[in-house]
Amino acid sequence: MKKLNKLSIIGYGAGDAANNLAFTTATMFLLVYYTDVAGISAAAAGTLLLAVRIFDAFADVFAGRVVDRAFSKRFGKFRPFIMFGSIPLLLLSVATFSVPQLGESGTLLYAYVTYAALGLAYSLVNIPYGSLAGAMTQDPGDRAKLGSARMIGALLVGSALGIFVAPLIKPGADLQGTFTTITLVFVAIGAALYFFTVLTAKERVHRAVPNVTFRQSMDTLKGNKPLLMLCLSSFFFLTGYLALTSVQLYYLRDVLHRLDLYPVLSIVQLALTFVLAGFMPRLVRNLGKKRVYIYSALLTVIGGAVIFLTPASQVWIGFAGLVVSLVGVLAVNIVVWALEADTVEYGEWRTGVRTEGITYALFSFTRKTGQAVGGALAAYALALGGYKSGAAQTADAVFGIQFAAGALPAIMTILAVLVMSRYTLTDAMHARILTEIQDRRKNSEGAAITAAADEKPTTPGAAAARSGAATPPASASN
Is the dihedral of CA 366, 87, 152, 143 positive or negative? Predict the structure, then answer.
């Protein structure tokens, strides 16, 4: 298959930058917004994050089925969802960060409804976007490049938030005005990025069945053990990662007392992303995707242990733990998308039906569930430690923050590595599967051409000779 050009790769990365204008803003700041701006208690916010993100996980499965049933001859399966779902998604991000004061129950109800609506809109855009990578190319190197591109797009947004927004999250600031302005600006930027993705990221992989039935989707998933192992490992990894992401600001502000280091961490993160993106295709070729995933995850374990065990007075050691953990997270998040795309071919190899939508949806379902659990556990750790907004934190509150930022990610990532060690879809096996799928398609196309030739109307003499009849039929039927 022809290699992807640079514009297609950049265009695909732009889509994840747009996604993360809504997603990363929520994962980085929504817990802080709920506790410090909307006035929702940490325990209530934790329950909200858990409930809504689990709802989001089921929304992903719904979106996967919608995607598998849809097909446009002009735009393909996936780009129409990005075209028409992007603006509602971005506007709902504005609504989520605009909680009015309606009394305790009214405020909480508004928060539930807007965040749930944001999650559903995100599923209807992100599931098609994630599925698009598997339909753009089957080349392992190109898939690694697409994974790097989407990671760069996401991290550009995350770094910008860390550099320019995080330092503003301090007592006494007009945080509601800040979040309203930011989310409104993101509507314009996000729309432009999504449009660029639609124009440049085209589907190129052959599809035998444009519209997939529910039974075909379930048959593909049932026998896809590599997908199930990847989903379980990602659940554990995302549980730890979202716990860290949710309390990273609290750790720098309330434990190390160095909120000014948040922009520094974001700049380091941005630089690391570009370095890893350049090396990742070579690492994948030399080590294989499975080993890259495991080795990278172990870095996250080391970083988490440093964060948890370092006294609050040792600022630079604690900060170094964040950086080490970050390196592991970035590398895993680059390679995991190529692993998911490989499982699509595994399902096609077993069943003969290609189901990017439901495959990506199941993968995203488990990731969303991990995010729900991780974010909720982080909030509960704050509540159990006795976190008080705008006040000096007690030793118990500091311990709760350190546990959520360090120990919890380390424990969850160890579980992710144990599961991933049993993953069977190696790069060599994937290459054999691709060869068999391509041979199968060639044989199928050859049989179709032969069948069409046999059914084609012929001259009476030729028909008689082929049938052995003395008198040819009066007509031939196609």
Answer: positive
Give 358-403 as a DSSP string.
HHHHHHHHHHHHHHHHHHHHHHHHHHHHT--TTSPPPHHHHHHHHI
Helix (H) or strand (E) holding 157: helix 140-160
Q: Which conformational region is residue 103 in: left (phi greater than 0), alpha (psi within -120 to 50 degrees), or beta? A: left
52 to 113, 264, 369: CA distances (angstroms)? 9, 32, 10
The Cα 239–Cα 243 span in angstroms is 6
Compute the distance between CA of residue 82 and CA of residue 63 in angstroms, rounded to an integer. Answer: 12
Are 40 and 111 in contact by the 8 Å Cβ rule? The answer is: yes
Full set of structural domains in the chain with CATH? 6-438 (1.20.1250.20)
Other CB atoms within 10 Å distance of the CB of residue 21? 27
Give the Cα separation of 60 and 124 in Å (integer): 7
Phi and psi at residue 98, to the nearest 5°:
-135, 55
Whole-angstrom distance, CA of residue 247 vs CA of residue 40: 16
- H or E, element range at 453: helix 427-455
Residue 175 CA to its chain's centroid (Å) = 28
| Block residue for tokens 């392992």 | 140
Record the tokens describing residue 451, joined without a space.
């069948």
Largest distance between two CA atoms of the chain: 103
Q: Which of residues 157 and 205 earns the better pLDDT score?
A: 157
- Residue 163 exposure: Cα atoms within 13 Å on the Cβ side: 12
163 CB neighbour count, 10 Å cutoff = 17
pLDDT over threshold 90, residue 449:
no
**Average pLDDT of the chain?**
81
Q: How many CA atoms lie within 13 A of 282 on its CB side?
A: 5
Q: What is the pLDDT of residues 1-51, one digit of tens each?
A: 567 788 888 889 899 999 989 888 887 888 888 988 888 888 888 889 888
The answer to whether the beta carbons of residues 322 and 265 sit under 8 Å apart is: yes
Q: What is the 3-state secondary structure of 54-102?
A: HHHHHHHHHHHHHHHHCCECCCECCHHHHHHHHHHHHHHHHHHCCCCCC
Cβ count within 10 A of residue 69: 16
**Contact by Cβ (8 Å): 143, 343:** no
Rounded CA-CA distance 478/346 in Å is: 36
Q: Indicate the helix (H) or strand (E) that contains 334.
A: helix 315-351
